[in-house]
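Quick question: what would this complex look like in 3D?
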Amino acid sequence: MRLVAEGLSARRGEDLIFNDISFALGAGEALVVTGPNGSGKSTLLRVLAGLLMAEKGSLKLENGPPEMRHPSELSHYLGHRNAMKRELTVAENLSFWKNFMGDSPGGSGRDLAEAVEAVGLPGIAHLPFGYLSAGQQRRMAMAKLLVAHRPIWILDEPTAALDAGADKLFAGLVNAHLDKGGIVIAATHQPLGLERIQELRMTGFSGVDGGLWHDA
Amino acid sequence: MSENSLAIRKFSDLANPTRFLALADRVLPWLAVVTALFFVVGLWLSFTTEGDYQQGETVRIMYVHVPAAWLSMMCYSVMALAALGTLVWRHPLADVSSRAAAPIGACFTFLALVTGSLWGKPMWGAWWVWDARLTSVFVLFLMYLGLMALNRAMDDPARSSRVSAVLVLVGFVNIPIIKFSVEWWNTLHQPASVLRLDGPTIDPEFLRPLVVMAIAFTLLFFTLHIAAMRNEIWRRRVTSLRRLAARSAGREV
Amino acid sequence: MMSHAAYVLASYGIATLTVVGLCLWVIADGRARQRELRELEASGVRRRSAEASNGETR
Amino acid sequence: MIALFLRDLKLSIRAGGGAMIGVLFFMTVVAVIPFGVGPDLNLLARIGPAILWIGALLASLLGLDRLFQAEREDGSLDLMLMQETPLLVTVFVKCAAHWAATGLPLVIAAPLLGLFMNMDELAIGATMLTLLVGTPAITFIGAVGAAVAVSLPRGGLLVSILVLPLAIPVLIFGVSAVYAAIEDPAPFLPPLMILAAITLFFAVIGPVAAAAALRHASD
């Protein structure tokens, strides 16, 4: 399996956020997207997750399952928000996503107890999600990556609310995913302590392109 | 002054949740038994006494309808007192009491409305008329439901207790309106015949079962209210324990 | 004068249903809360002493 | 998909959910009417079906704006957009859950309010039936409005304004079916069939349009 992006560029509204981004990731490889605030890291990840249309360029999965329409269907996306309901318990949240997302071909998700154990928070899955602290909520959102199998993980600032111990734990999860032949794309300020990474440094687009309403 | 504050401290000692639970455990079985006894006697009386020459058998509906209507108002008065306790003395049990009373009050009000409707159909020929008494009781029912919805919507009792207490007190305006609506406005509903300044006008034949049923319903209310308060205290313990569990989880990692 | 027994029976029936339903709800609610408390205590969560003397904080 | 249905149902029943609020609003609106038009029982019986329908229409619009907004705010919508299951199926299931939590209680509460309006048994039955057939259409139309207004900070009022005009046909045929049932010469079945057709039509169009709007609203 190989994820190839060629000459991607994207707009938000009128503004061209980035231009001509290309990379290729094989199984077991990670891409770490770095760069200052506003350089378009989040936008790039949302394009990769299929949530934004790319202005130009293409994103293809080579040697993937044939019947799939967009790589996003094989991706996990962990954005700034956790996609968990405060009113439901952690277990209800996780089992909903496990059922709703299902597993991609070529693997199966872990069951709830295992996933909660893996993020280091066993024994509180019966609590409403809203009772947890910000760091605990983030870790439970990571447990979501484990309950449904997806070969590609797209992570936007995954370790933002986490302490050092949880950072290490998360790096372990990502490494385990890579060892099993997964692909990880992460935007982050902190070093994740990963091996086999490519780094993509976003500088922010500074070229002159006013868009439709101006002369080039 | 010091006596007064001592009395208040004693009162709040008694109303301390743990003591309340112990007290409730001791009182509830007895209360339940006495309630059941009163209901047995009340039901027996209400089916053995004679029918009214004017209203026929339907007078028996009165033995359920009138106590339920009384209780719907008394329950709200209890809630209003509890709301006062929440706002003035900031007593934690007052909010528990107010919350526990709302569903019970809603049930009794529902009962009063339904039995009144069943009594009205043969007497007036309509299930429902929009006169002052009936309408104000219906408004009371809506208020109970609204308070229940409010209590559910705000899951943090510490914040919601004040808000709902204010609403309960504002809504208390409705109680005198219900009580005196039959006298202030000329309505289809018959005026009060038991609780009057110049003594009851009702025949003792009907008064006896009515009083027994009223006592039975009142006892039932207190039994259920104490049990529901106990549930509410347990519910809050569960909540605080869960928050504690969430705080202490994952520390050792 | 008609006896209207059906109306009387209906109102007593509905009253019984409502009251019994209310009682059952209160009992079931209490059982469920106690079970939750037991589960929490079994899973090792303890009230601190301050909370033990004052069961409902927050 | 059943998981989504159950989750939405749970959410609307748990604290802060809108299931009970809708019925309460319905009851309050209907209870207010007699104060406005006066307690004339014959008049109330005549306008009762129309009032029940308008009350149900307003009550079912009440919680609609949160249908997708809540999902968007916590990021769940992103994940729903990414899945292999077509978005329109997801939207359809969410609508069904929303209707089961808010529309169905309205149908169940309608007979009680019908008694208050002094309507006879036939009129109450007809109103219940038409509400049962017609309210899903309101939910499906509302889903389009909710999807269009999903990214607006104060979309609630806008959703109502967008949806109300579209819901007028539902109201027309719902009320006319009830009156056809009460007043003898007019046949009951044709307006009911048209109402059912409207519901089926919007059950298809609504999710498609809402899904398209959601795709383009994501940023």
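Answer marked as accepted. The mean pLDDT of chain B is 81.
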